[in-house]
């Protein structure tokens, strides 16, 4: 089954945490799909990945850019995998029906939003019942990740 990591954002917002996680995935040789909650959010993330560091950027694209198969990171609000990714990153409460098709999934949720936390708990229960391996990470004071639980 797929390993699904739940990333509880406590210190840094998604726009700061996501590029760091994607940078690690690319460095390890993976391709990724980022499933956002809306088309507007896709565009915000698209812009952010160009500017997250003054001296660098992450190679990525979205429907606006086209050529999905050429993009190491694909940003979308549709449950799809047009770039042959092995990693799926879900944010804004977006949940894929295709988690089993990925080697690894990341579910990033805002720990300062009680509704987002409750919905993440519901996704945890659902994917646990489906037999996926679940890992819970909490953001520490410096913005890094600490593993808190594994099933």
Main sheet record: 8 strands, mixed
| SS strand fraction | 25-35%
Q: What string, H for helix and E for strand, traces the elements in order?
A: EHEHEEEEHEE
The average pLDDT score comes to 94
In total, how many beta strands? 8
Binned, the helix content reads 25-40%
Report the structural category.
Answer: alpha/beta
Low-confidence stretches: none
The number of helical elements comes to 3
Query: If you compute it from the alpha carbons, what radius of gyration comes out, rounded to the nearest whole angstrom?
Result: 14 Å
Please state the overall shape, judged from the principal axes of the Cα atoms: globular
State the distance separating the first and last CA atoms.
12 Å
* Widest sheet: strand ordering: 3-4-2-5-6-1-7-8
